[in-house]
């Protein structure tokens, strides 16, 4: 099995009727498979690169679940999560190399670890996505809601060795934000992850 096939295994099983999903999810899976085939055409404007999806999968596995039966276990992406993040991270413009997708809608029932999943992605976007001066925000209509993802991210970092969080990722965990200060090849990359409530959008 190739890496692309593995990243797309959820979409293939949905389209083969092996996984029961809603109509919208089935359409999304069908579109992603159609786009993958279309990307072989030189005139198609996008290409799929599996390496960023695989990189995120390995990154996520460095963190451990905080609650429930899986508490203390590594965060192993489920097939649907692997497919979803591979879509977000892997599709790029052939002409510029920039990411194709800038917005994603992921909707799952309560109790399925949305905040945990979003927190891991926020840490990745801050520290490992190759962006200079990254600014990552958890936004909601109230400060309490916005803090949920941030607080989970802070707890995730607090449960991992400082050698990994501070040394390798270059993160400083503070009460109201997580800051990136990582020097590479003589260049200091600074970034921030914090929460924003509804009033902040009115300024």
Automatic annotation (TrEMBL):
User: Which Gene3D superfamilies does the protein's record reference?
Assistant: P-loop containing nucleotide triphosphate hydrolases
Q: Where is the Terminase large subunit-like ATPase domain positioned along the sequence?
A: 79-163
What is the name of this protein? Terminase large subunit-like ATPase domain-containing protein
Originating species: Komagataeibacter nataicola
């Amino acid at each position: 099995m190739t890496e692309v096939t593995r990243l797309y295994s959820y979409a293939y099983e949905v389209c083969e009727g092996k996984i029961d999903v809603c109509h919208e999810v089935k359409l999304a899976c069908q579109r992603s498979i159609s786009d993958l085939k279309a990307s072989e055409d030189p005139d198609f404007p996008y290409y799929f690169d599996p390496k960023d999806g695989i990189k995120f999968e390995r990154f996520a596995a460095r963190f451990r679940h905080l609650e429930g039966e899986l508490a203390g276990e590594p965060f192993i992406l489920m097939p649907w999560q692997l497919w979803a993040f591979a879509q977000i991270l892997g599709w790029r413009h052939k002409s510029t190399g920039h990411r194709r997708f800038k917005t994603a809608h992921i909707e799952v029932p309560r109790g399925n670890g949305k905040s945990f999943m979003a927190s891991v992605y926020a840490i990745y976007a801050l520290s490992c996505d190759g962006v200079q001066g990254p600014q990552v925000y958890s936004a909601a209509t109230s400060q309490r809601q916005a803090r949920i993802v941030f607080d989970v991210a802070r707890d995730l970092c607090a449960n991992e060795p400082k050698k990994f969080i501070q040394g390798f990722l270059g993160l400083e965990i503070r009460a109201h934000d997580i800051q990136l200060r990582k020097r590479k090849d003589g260049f200091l990359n600074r970034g921030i992850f914090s929460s924003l409530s509804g009033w902040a959008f009115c300024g």
